[in-house]
Fold:
Amino acid sequence: MKIALTIAAGLATLAAPLAAEEAFYVVNRTGYTIEQVYLAPTRTSNWEEDVLEEMVLDDGETFKIDMSRSEDTCLWDLRVVYTDGEDAQWGELNLCEMSTVVLRYDRKRGTWATTD
Structure:
């Protein structure tokens, strides 16, 4: 599967940090199974651990990421890895202004994301 990267940039960088009870949702509508999901503050280069742990995110499923232990930042980068090893990344997602990222894929556009 050929993955085209789409960068979704958060425009407001001065928004208030995420509240302790906040959650972030990743919705897989790519038609493929996602094996790994990584979320890291934009200012770092370390993806940390796979938030799915031993699970997978099948097409049509939603995964809730608990942001209560998040750092004091609004801007985050998201990386997903499919079962075939291909990956896609999005940078500077403003999680203070959105709570859901819906991932989609088609052969013409590649992988892209919409946010709420």
The chain is about 0% helix and 40% strand. The mean pLDDT is 82. Residues 28 and 56 are 10 Å apart (CA to CA). The longest strand covers residues 34-41.
